[in-house]
């Protein structure tokens, strides 16, 4: 293999290079991120470490970040309201529920840098948005098998980062995936992250849990269960005002799942929300959640679906009246 590749030390922080051994098999060994790496016109074999260095490598060594590191608490605060508003808006605007929960364990992918993981998350979601948009009218040769039965679907998602005691730095994402494409979604996600990590990490580094939505009520209840788990790292001393003028804690409002105190992180953010569910889109639609209106007892009532039906009915009535010459 020949070619020119220039990548900064930070980009190589989490990568692994392949060491050739007998029978054209490969092992992996770490690339040291001390300086920028220039791979010039030489064969890949001359750049690889001896196999015995791979055998002696301790994969359990903690990653030590380099460069400018700004640590921050891993507790969610105002992010809780932003995430809830995004979920509520999706129910109200699209009449959809989050039916898929994806857990990404970056330590198992050998991505030790919190900043690198945070940088890659939007790129992965951009790729999955493109992937889910492919249908019979946008066939691609490499997606031919999936496209035959695929229907285009919007990629709606929210995610949070956590720094757990057991998993270390990882992400939880809620999103919408058509029932018929779950296996393909999981396979494409695994392949994409393996390419970015430059290592064939174990498949259990990515867990995709999907729940078929048989009816509106059961689908919404599962979404609420997952959302409570998603925001379990919220600071319990943070809260929102209710109609009584008092501040109520997020634990009281959202009935959070139990959570232990965790280590700080140095990622630039703790959460992400897709553009379709952003604050800008909510304002343009004139949407106000029950959290925004201080009706805290109604946050999990599922009011969004009834409101959408009433809105559609009103729009149809207005359109019909506009056709009458009265």
TrEMBL record:
<protein>
    <submittedName>
        <fullName>Uncharacterized protein</fullName>
    </submittedName>
</protein>
């Amino acid at each position: 293999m020949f070619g020119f590749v220039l990548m900064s030390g930070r980009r190589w922080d989490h990568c692994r290079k392949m060491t050739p051994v007998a029978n054209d098999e490969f092992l992996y060994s770490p690339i040291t991120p001390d300086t920028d790496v220039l791979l010039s016109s030489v064969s890949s074999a001359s750049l690889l470490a001896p196999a015995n260095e791979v055998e002696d490598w301790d994969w359990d060594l903690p990653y030590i970040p380099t460069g400018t590191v700004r640590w921050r608490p891993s507790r969610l605060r105002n992010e809780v309201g932003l995430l809830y508003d995004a979920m509520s808006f999706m129910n109200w605007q699209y009449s959809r529920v989050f039916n898929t929960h994806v857990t990404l364990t970056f330590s198992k992918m050998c991505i030790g840098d919190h900043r690198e993981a945070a940088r890659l998350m939007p790129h992965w979601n951009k790729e999955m948005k493109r992937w889910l948009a492919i249908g019979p009218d946008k066939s691609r040769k490499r997606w031919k098998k999936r496209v035959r039965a695929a229907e285009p679907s919007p990629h709606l998602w929210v995610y949070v980062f956590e720094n757990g005691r057991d998993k270390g730095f990882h992400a939880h994402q809620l999103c919408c995936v058509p029932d018929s494409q779950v296996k393909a979604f999981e396979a494409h996600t695994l392949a994409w992250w393996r390419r970015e990590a430059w290592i064939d990490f174990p498949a259990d580094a990515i867990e995709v849990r999907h729940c078929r939505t048989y009816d509106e009520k059961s689908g919404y209840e599962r979404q609420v269960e997952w959302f409570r788990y998603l925001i379990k790292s919220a600071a319990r001393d943070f809260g929102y005002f209710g109609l009584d003028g008092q501040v109520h804690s997020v634990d009281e409002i959202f009935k959070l799942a139990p959570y232990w105190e965790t280590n700080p992180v140095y990622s630039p953010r703790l959460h992400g929300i897709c553009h379709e569910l952003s604050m800008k889109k909510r304002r343009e639609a004139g949407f106000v959640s029950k959290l925004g209106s201080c009706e805290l007892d109604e946050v999990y009532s599922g009011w969004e679906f009834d409101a959408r039906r009433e809105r559609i009915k009103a729009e149809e009535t207005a359109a019909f009246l506009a056709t009458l010459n009265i």
